[in-house]
Amino acid sequence: MKKLNFHPCGSYKENYFQELAIFQTDFGRFWAVVGLILLFAALPWLSGPYTLYILNMTGIAAIAAIGLNILIGMTGQISLGHGAFIGVGAYAGAVLAVDFSFPFYLSIPAAGLITAMAGMVFGIPSGRLKGLYLTIATLAGQFIIEYVLVHWEGVTRGTMGITLPSPEVLGFQLSGDRSFFYIIFLSLAVLTWAAVNLTRTRHGRAFVAIRDNDRAAEGMGIPVFRYKLLSFGISSFYAGVAGAIWAYYMISVTTEPFNLTLSVEYIAMVIIGGLGSISGSIFGATFITLLNEGLRYMTDWLMNSGGIPGFEINFAPIRELVFGLAIVLFILFEPKGLAEMWRIVKSNFKLWPFSY
Amino acid sequence: MDFFLQLLVNGLSIGFLYGISAMGFVMIFKSSSVLNFAHGEVLALGAFIFLALVVSAGIPVVPAFLLTLCASFALGFIIERLFLRPLIGEPLIEVVMLTVGLASVFKGFMLLVWGGNLHTFPDFLPEWLELNWNTIQVAPVYTASFIAGISFLVIFGLFFKYSSQGIYMRSVADNQTAALSLGVHVKRVFALSWAIAAMVAALSGIILGIMNGINVHELSSIGLKVFPVVILGGLDSIGGAIVGGIIIGLLETFTGGYISTSMRDIVPYMALVVILLVKPYGLFGLVEIERV
């Protein structure tokens, strides 16, 4: 029997393969498998519809956040247009499903590919621009895509929106939160696996090299522009998949949700979760979704219980305020995000109870 | 022809307002290279402070105006001291996101206090500011904005050229390390530039508020309109902000007048992409040359 290895009391890596391993210990691998089994076998059957809804929204957000983290955290290209790309994915999925009657398992990846192409088009400015100039260019991209979504009425039906059929597999109608749970979390698992492995390939290393110093990367023979475009493409693919699933889940798509606020929300997820960390994106997506739902719950509760006398409570401003505060506090006090907090907790327990 | 002239006048005056709004933004970027996404919110906050002082507290216009300027000066100072100073030297994304977060905080605060409705100032601009040629009318507020813009431009010009603080600010903008080694208090310069920028923002917020009424969403969206303006003018050129503002204002009104009204809001951003691809440092911006 293979000898199981547990957490060593330090870094004893002797070669690159150990450094690149996803699971440093068999312990971690074991818990990952147990976690996945629990996630798919137990969780959807134990939770009620509202919990399932929150889980599903978290899953969708996590897919898109992982995509954005590949772009911002790994490649270092700040994009303020991610919300619009999710919109492109949602509309692509909806149009493919309604006008071309694609089955959902084809239209979701196809929407991802279409969005990837859109993302690469809007990534072209990155050939000449970097840093804050690129950020401003993607901001313009956000507005332009939003405009196109509203005004290209032949395809997107303008402000009317599109209503999607419920997904179908082999004659079975998939509807309800539980079947969507499986669609969403299977995609999330596959895409997380892909993202984690991307960091270990030459492409992932090229991204990191570009992030750390694009000129040095160019000097080492990395075609910087091509990799930047690739990064935009991959990140938009994730956004597109998330958008298409979102469209199926919400049944109808309209243009309103895909505004700058959504883009900002996704950057907040990436930052609060931890830049450059795949698990961080999932933490961040969970945090922001729970924050949104928690605030909604709280304001509802306050309104129903009569509220504070003489003080009208409204959901939108409080959400805005708390959301901004969360971003500011995280940046000031834990700029590496939840992933770093998790790492600190883990490393404290690594040697527990003999910490020295 | 009349239509054309009216559009021209409107474009010029709106553009001028954009220019004034962008001035504070440029000021911050010039001294500390921070891209301030909260600019629109600071601008709106200025307008709301003025509103609170004039309407709720019933203070006469002139002292209320001066008080607003002082309050926003203090606000800018506090923002820099509390939020931006800990981030000196941190990566770009953190600074950008911090200002985005601040924007969200301010917006939420304003919505909580004043709500999302349209408020208006009492009419206090004198009648003689209204100009008329044949069929073309210039509303008093446009004249006021023009006067305010010109006077601020002159004041800034003198401030940067002759006052010691202004010279410090220019030196920091030019070369932070050299300025530091020559004894310039760089942190104070940062704080001062945020304070002045907030003050200018409040001024433009008040003017915009007189013109269109004050509404949180409307005013804070100006903060995003500023981007095409400053990119066109050059991110670190105050005169460029005015020129960029006028060009963007004209572009917007002419598109609105001749092509379609829905294109109006998107045209500045299209222009932005084109400018970024063709001439990323704008008309008057300093071209950064990078060496490895």
Contiguous low-pLDDT stretches of chain B (5 residues minimum) are none
Distance between the termini of chain B: 55 Å
Give me the secondary-structure category of chain A: mainly alpha
The strands making up the biggest β-sheet of chain A line up spatially as 1-4
Q: How can the largest sheet of chain B be summarized?
A: 2 strands, antiparallel
CA radius of gyration of chain B is: 19 Å
Number of strand segments of chain B: 2
Helix fraction of chain A by DSSP (H/I, runs of at least 4): over 70%
Helices and strands in order:
The complex is a heterodimer of chains A (356) and B (292).
Chain A lengths: L15 H5 L5 H21 L2 H26 L7 H18 L4 H20 L8 H20 L1 H4 L5 E2 L4 E2 L2 E2 L3 H22 L3 H11 L1 H6 L4 H27 L1 E2 L6 H14 L4 H27 L10 H19 L3 H14 L6
Antiparallel strand pairs in A: 1-4, 2-3
Chain B lengths: L1 H31 L6 H18 L4 H24 L7 H23 L16 E3 L2 E3 L1 H23 L1 H11 L1 H6 L4 H27 L3 H18 L4 H22 L7 H12 L14
Antiparallel strand pairs in B: 1-2
Helix pairs in contact in B: 1-5, 1-8, 1-9, 1-10, 2-3, 2-4, 2-8, 2-9, 3-8, 5-6, 5-8, 6-8, 9-10, 9-11
